[in-house]
Amino acid sequence: MQESYENMNTKKVRTRIAPSPTGEDIHIGNLYTALINYVFAKKNNGEFIIRIEDTDRGRFQEGAEKRILSSVKSFGLTYSEGPDIGGPFKPYRQSERLEIYQTFAKKLIEKKNAYYCFCTKERLDELRAKQSEMKQTPRYDKHCLENVQNSEERISHGEKYVVRLNVPRDQVVTFTDVIRGGISFNTNEMDDQVLLKSDGFPTYHLGVVIDDHLMEVSHVIRAEEWISSTPKHVLLYQFFDWELPIFAHLPILRNPDKSKLSKRKNPVWASWYIEEGYLPEAVLNYLALMGWSHPEQKEIFSLDEFVSVFELKDIHPVGPAFDSNKLRWMNQQYIQNLSDGALFEKIVTFYSDKKLDSDLLKKIIPLLKTRMETLKDFEDLAAFIFEAPKVSLNQKEKEIASKLGELLASVDWDEEKILLQLKNILQEYDIRMPTLYKIVTGKEKGLPLPQSLASLPKDEVINRLRDALS
Ligand code: GLU
Fold first, then answer.
1. Which one is the CATH code of 395-469: 3.10.450.30, 2.60.120.10, 1.10.10.350, 1.10.8.50?
2. Which of 32, 258, 370, 386 is deepest in the core (most CB within 10 A)?
3. What share of the chain is helix, strand, coil (3-state, %, to 5)?
4. pTM of the complete model
5. CA 79 to centroid of ligand 1, rounded, Å
6. How far is the CA of 400 from the centre of ligand 1 (A)?
């Protein structure tokens, strides 16, 4: 694309995400959109803001807004204006801006760029059925525009109505997308979109255009699924006589088999990744690589570095594959690169509901660091160190445990001496490590046994082995 197009706008850079509170939380694909908006704003000394688009009352989910905002924050994508913190263009929640949309809808009606429509559901269903019978694309036939003269009167009698966009025929609407270049649509392909619904709420199209304009959004960076809506928006900008923002439509993340990222193949809610012990910085790093690559082909880089080398135009429009195995690998890289102190802090915070013995944890951090892929792996690897495991042993296993207790009681307490005794047991009873591991820890694998036992006080280990006999 043109080298300088993305910064052509001389206004202050203001980007936004406009999530709808219709799911459990923010979708990982929308977190990707948030990341790019955040980074682009940072790069250009601009502002990144959040607006909540809660006008679809049928799909509205109580509590979703709170979870979305909290997820965005937990990934460190700080926003400078939003529904919870306010800002110069408040309110940032569309349901609190209904009067604004109604006022602007009236202006469109006055200029005949929009019109009242009183058609019943029955008529619209009939129209649609007829059109599909004749293999035509279903769309509204401008019946009310052409036939209704007494709209105000009908409204004053309490009749229900919607407001529709008056799409002119035989025109071409064109806009430039930073990532995709010039895009054109013929207005004959476009429907007279409802702008204001009978409940007084705007549809997405009216709300998004008015708010992006009033909130001085300079760059509309959103997912590619909105490309086909953009010509309607462009018409609205023209009708209002407003300057267009710069558009960029990001590729949609896909499953490795190229299907749209869905709950069946990959967890989609951003908070899931935090709850499963992924580090926000690792997830953001992974997302950064969706449809974009570092100029030096680096895979691991910080958010600051991403800000410094990122160019919007370098994003590839083709759907990148979101591979959860690759993300796991990246998370592991991030964990390995943490200092011992930082990993200690992360584990303590992640398990804040458990009272972990700090000294013990500090001792085993180096062991953990090379083995954890996520913070949650801590539990599998090391839970037995912090809490005596519940083991139920058969007769033979009890014999082994008792013998091990006896041998360990007589050694100096360090990992080499412990290892020696473990080897003696393996030989004497002709068993393999996983069997012995299970007798001692209740699990078949985890952190190396000699080091783990050495991290505990000798008495504790002997007592546990004794208790396992009863
Ligand atoms: N409310 C839309 C959404 O849920 C926003 C689309 C846009 O960014 O314009 O994603």
1. 1.10.10.350
2. 32
3. 50, 10, 40
4. 0.94
5. 17
6. 63
